[in-house]
Amino acid sequence: AQSVTQLDSQVPVFEEAPVELRCNYSSSVSVYLFWYVQYPNQGLQLLLKYLSGSTLVKGINGFEAEFNKSQTSFHLRKPSVHISDTAEYFCAVRSGGYQKVTFGTGTKLQVIP
Amino acid sequence: SQTIHQWPATLVQPVGSPLSLECTVEGTSNPNLYWYRQAAGRGLQLLFYSVGIGQISSEVPQNLSASRPQDRQFILSSKKLLLSDSGFYLCAWGGGADIQYFGAGTRLSVL
Questions:
Q1: Beta bridge partners of A107
Q2: Which candidate, A13, A29, B75, B109, has a CA 20 to 30 Å from the CA of A67?
Q3: Residue contact B46–A100, C-beta within 8 A
Q4: Residue B6 with chain A: CB contacts under 8 Å
Q5: Do the Cβ atoms of B43 and A101 come within 8 Å?
Q6: What is the pLDDT of residues A2-30, one digit of tens each?
Q7: Residue B8: is the preceding peptide bond cis (ω within 30°)?
Q8: Which residue of chain B comes nearest to A105, CA vs CA?
């Protein structure tokens, strides 16, 4: 079985400050990991993905995430946030050979001017 | 390029009325297709997924059903809506490594 935990339901941060959104996963086999962003009343947009190779993954809008197998984590980071980054962020996992993607409950990022 | 269409964008329905939400994908063949529901504060709940025409897997027992009459068409239905069916419904298709690409969603309000 696979699962994803996003411990922070809301993260307020001042504009131009750095941010880290935490994601921990559980799986007994190799994994693919994803981060999605959802703006109000819209679908989810893929932000970045880890499939294999380098554990540091860069995505759109200046975001990056690091796959840490020993800590079973895939935290999302941005060195300097903008007002436009205000959105909800979802971490997701798919285990090798398993057809379904499991999503976390989401973290709402609120950027304060 | 692949695109996914979902309609309607918003829908207000009375309790007990039927439901039909449609999702179509363009630019790909034999995709894995998914229906999710997003309720406030509860994240995404996988409702159904389909790996081919007529093949539907249900994830949770509920008042809804799904059908896949064509390769790139996925329909979510209900015969009688409940208040608890309100939510934001998202259709998605699976690409390489089953990366999920989402439609814009349908906001359903059951009154």
A1: A89
A2: A13
A3: yes
A4: 43
A5: no
A6: 889 999 999 999 999 999 999 999 877 78
A7: yes
A8: B43
